[in-house]
Write a structure and sequence with these properties.
Blueprint (H helix, E strand, L loop, with lengths): L5 H12 L13 E3 L9 H11 L2 E6 L4 H20 L6 E7 L7 H7 L5 E6 L7 E6 L3 E7 L5 H5 L5 E7 L3 H15 L2 E2 L2 H31 L7 H4 L11 H7 L22 H15 L4 E5 L6 H12 L4 E5 L2 H14 L5 E4 L10 E5 H4 L2 H4 L9 E4 L8 H9 L4 E6 L4
Helix pairs in contact: 2-3, 10-11, 11-12
């Protein structure tokens, strides 16, 4: 691609950030990239255009799947062949991803390892959720930063927002982005066959666990007379279509309604966090990394707060969990939701008619638990993780007594009421 004229870039920035009426070269103006079938717009088109003309590239993406890789594989093949034919002009690439939540497909990583001009690393120290594509051109950098992972659905179908912009090599934004990339890159593991084998084992175990979850769902569906699960079980969940993977499944929930549907093929139904829940899980993880032991989740009714708490419990792996609510109906539905995702846990109830004090996952009525003689049955640090539903009631005497009494490693409050 031709060299970038800094004066022309300055003009385009005035168009993009000062006035849309200012005349400049369109291709240099900062642009919002989206997927729009009717307007024949795809984020993939811009990604391929930059990739095919660059001198080097760095990707930092949370999730990679086979379909996403397939979408750019022809371009990668061409760059690889060019690099082998003209080694002095080799187009080298670095791809940074993560093992977080085990969404990225091992087979996609293995495919990337076949490219001699590409190095792959994985960040393994916790939450990792960037989606950035950096291209070094002749005398400038082009970047695409936004919401799109390296999956086919994110690059071609989903409602995604990504911004494409250009910067001269000495620009502050180039320095900042590259510095951040280099820092995380140096702190990440090199992906080779040995690393990949270990990751693949964990990935396969997750797939097996999800199959068991699917059996539980099918059994419950039969008990319901084939009507499917009630809304409390379906919030913020979707069903992958044929050939979907966990990563693509998570991406597709951006377009789908947050309900769960049942697929006749057992291995194709999975319960995984959707995009909103993934973001929240990363935030919760980061809070704990900074030694915070309490968090408040505010989200509208029906958006999956209960399932988010389950997914967070799954990633924390506490030995004992307490779920507190003010109505038995909430406790019953929440317990079933927990069992759908974590079928092997030992659950119990504490209310006016049941006192399953030995349960590892105890679902307790706040009114029963708040009684003085009941609270004294538990040590203050009895539970590692406590979830308080409808926590906006925390000012009431019952809720306050429970929250003040226990000292868990982490407490999560759920509410739909910002006040």
């Amino acid at each position: 691609m031709r060299n970038l004229d800094s004066e022309q870039l300055l003009q385009s920035l005035q168009t993009g950030f000062i006035s849309k009426t200012h005349h400049s070269i369109n291709e240099l103006t900062p642009t919002l990239l989206v997927n729009n079938y009717h307007k024949e717009k795809k984020i993939l088109s811009s990604l391929e255009e930059e990739l095919s003309s660059c001198e080097a590239f760095d990707f930092s993406v949370a999730f990679i799947n086979n379909d996403g890789l397939a979408a750019i594989k022809q371009t990668l093949d061409e760059l690889s062949q060019y690099s082998q034919k003209y080694p002095e002009k080799a187009v080298k690439g670095r791809i940074l991803t993560t093992n977080y939540l085990n969404f990225t497909q091992p087979s996609a990583l293995r495919e990337l390892l076949q490219f001699p001009n590409i190095e792959v690393r994985a960040y393994t120290k916790g939450g990792f959720h960037p989606k950035g594509y950096i291209f070094r051109q002749s005398n400038y950098y082009s970047m695409i930063i936004g919401s799109a992972n390296l999956t086919a659905s994110a690059l071609t179908m989903n409602q995604e927002w990504s911004v494409k912009f250009l910067s001269c090599t000495d620009g502050q934004i180039v320095y900042t982005v590259r510095e951040e990339f280099e820092q995380v890159w140096s702190d990440s593991d090199r992906v080779d066959e040995n690393w990949l084998s270990q990751y693949e084992s964990k990935y396969d175990k997750k797939r097996l666990a999800l199959k068991l979850v699917n059996k539980q769902i099918k059994e419950l569906k039969k008990q319901k007379g084939g009507e499917g699960l009630p809304l409390a079980h379906t919030s913020l969940l979707a069903t992958p279509s044929s050939g979907d993977t966990p990563a693509m499944f998570a991406e597709q929930t951006r377009l789908q309604r947050p309900d769960i549907f049942f697929n006749d093929e057992e291995e194709q139904t999975e319960i995984v966090p959707n995009s909103m829940q993934e973001e929240a899980m990363v935030a919760l993880h980061n809070l704990r990394e900074h030694k915070q032991n309490r968090a408040l989740l505010i989200a509208a009714t029906g958006t999956g707060k209960t399932f988010l708490s389950i997914f967070d419990v799954k990633q924390v792996k506490p030995k004992k969990v307490l779920y507190v609510a003010h109505r038995d109906m909430i406790l019953d539905k929440s317990e079933k939701s927990f069992k759908n995702v974590l079928p092997d846990i030992k659950t119990g109830f504490l209310n006016g008619s049941q006192k399953d004090l030995s349960a590892d996952y105890l679902f307790a009525s706040v009114f029963t638990l708040a009684k003085e003689d009941t609270l004294k049955l538990f040590k203050k640090d009895e539970f590692d993780y406590i979830i308080v539903d409808e926590v906006h009631h925390a000012g009431s005497e019952s809720y306050k007594k429970v929250i003040d009494y226990f000292t868990p490693k982490f407490l999560l409050g759920l509410t739909a009421t910002p006040e």
